[in-house]
User: What shape does this take?
Amino acid sequence: MDEATSTKKVGKQHNTLPLWGNEASMNLNPLILANIQGSSYFKVHLFKLKTYHEVVDEIYYQVKHMEPWERGSRKTSGQTGMCGGVRGVGAGGIVSTAYCLLYKLYTLRLTRKQVNGLLNHTDSPYIRALGFMYLRYTQPPADLYDWYEDYLQDEEEIDVKAGGGQMITIGQMVYQFLTKIDWFSTLFPRIPVPIQKQIEKKLELYCRTNQITLHQLSTGRGVAAASQDNSYNDDSYNRRGGAVTGRDMNSERDYPPLTNYRTEHDDRDRGRGRERERDYYQTASSSSYRRHEYSSPAKERERRSSREREKHHEKSKKKRKHKHHSRSRSNSQSHSRHERKHERERSGHTKSRDDYEERRYR
Assistant: This one.
């Protein structure tokens, strides 16, 4: 193998880091790239920075979030259709300091050692976040899981939203880089479907190996859940190597008593229990026993509602009875008036007929 072929050889053990995709644009959104190259911050201030360490210091002092645009600088209210601010399309705004420095790192063509220095930096989580984002934009999709695997349960927190208010862990951010294609309305380079399926299988295997779920991994609770499981497994065995029984576990001060464990207050003889039960029922059957003192709040509410229903029933019954009585009284009075009227008519008719007969025979 000649020298020219050996210099072109690139591997994980080699310090030269390969670039993937469009090397002219770093696989960035064209709108974001145009705003970066046209910003005075990138053209004037970052142009003066020539070394890797100077750029890292600039990240430490200037980067406060990981969004591609500064807060409130992007105006999309008057746009419609495909230009409505969807997927980074539409009018641009003030590109963020983080993305300007990300592209500045790309112009330096970082080595493998420098990228590892970003990922494990101890001064600022934003330095580490830009290292992970640099890998997401520049590395082949098949190599991403190998880069990110050791950081899936990293619990260092970072505020990624412009203006603050969205705290996530480094592990959550890395998981999103592997499983999602968008990041604050901009697109990452697309991962081919076969490679995406391989990444999902590797994530499932990782979760089984570390005894956590995908939900715990995506929410950044993998380490806490694993530590709780380990502490439970350690406590389930005593010092002699045997399983700890319920009585032994309750004898320790660190453990609360189990619900199904009988305490010393429950260890009473059966005769005494029968006497208490008899006294209770005698008291309940006596006239001086007040039920509401021994009833639960639910039963008391039910009893109160039943009493209110009975009162309402009695009132409606009285109303119906009074109405029926008044109606019958009015009917009887009208009937008596009719009878008296008929009697008067009959008496008047008979009297007039008798007078007629007398006049006739007179």
